[in-house]
């Protein structure tokens, strides 16, 4: 049996282990739409002795890869439009899990994804338009105006017909072939890696950090032009800023992040940490506290979400599959919905503990990620909507229970037949 009673794990003295910036260091307005993400900046720059930052954290921050788009919101992008409500989503928060294979210790990453504007380079765009206009003009000059047949010029009637057709051709010269619409935004991520599941509270920290960076960036941008901006320094596009205002803004951001990393972790069932993101007269503090080790673990996310999405009957089927150690794959276009449901199913096993593989979000951009679905042991894994589309040859094992959280569809093969009769049916009260 892999379902055992909850064991006491060694706590970490740090509330937050790392703050990570992920994206593209030099995004191009005319480059590839999707590329591999890069690790742009890490706080602190050195690894901790008890926990080194995994190199594959970049794929979990951007599960579908680092892509460029011409839109300012996620909802209009084709990879994010399925299953979404018709509203502009400027940023997206979700949680993922990093598990150490040797110690079996789980770290949680809370990620904030947003679309960052790409720096304009008008000179390149104008040069491309001019080059295509000259090439189009030269091609039109090489076309013959009169057609000669048998060394004789055609009659005037034919000439008039040809002149009208030539006018139409020359009129088409005004419709020049323009370059494709350039990309204006690139996907960028800010992530907190911690031992503790303060999901909603860490999201508040990330949103405040993003607002702080954006305000300082906009404060320096109107006065100075060029590539030396706050975002260009934080993302590694330039090593250091020569403009004093930009350099001072980056130093303030570094100081704020280092103060955030210096917050200690609360003691289980004894202490509480009051963290002020702003001065006390401007905002209330964020309180970090942990229950006793032997009680129900901390749940800082909507535990009822899978029940409200699937309904009672389908929820019981999936939960029974989990207790009977079956393979479960959850699929959704919402990253936050996907990770929340996976963590909720495992948390509801209390006072037992699920000891098999738990991956709330398996990135589709991670090479060889589909091999984890072929594991012989039970698991519960969440995959994005485009995971199977990006791997046409992928075939899920026959003993997998596939749960679509967007359409509330539960597809099973012969797994459910072993215990389908054990699911209690609703009885009407008379």
UniProtKB/TrEMBL annotation:
In terms of PANTHER family, this protein maps to: MAP KINASE-ACTIVATING DEATH DOMAIN PROTEIN, MAP-KINASE ACTIVATING DEATH DOMAIN PROTEIN MADD /DENN/AEX-3 C.ELEGANS
Q: One of this protein's GO BP terms? A: regulation of Rab protein signal transduction
Q: Which PROSITE patterns match?
A: DENN
Its ancestry begins with: Eukaryota, Metazoa, Spiralia, Lophotrochozoa, Platyhelminthes
Protein name stated in the entry: UDENN domain-containing protein
The record ties this protein, via SMART domains, to: DENN, uDENN
Q: Which domain of life is it from?
A: Eukaryota
Which Gene Ontology molecular-function terms are recorded?
Answer: guanyl-nucleotide exchange factor activity
Cellular component per GO? cytosol
Where is each UDENN domain found?
Answer: 18-430
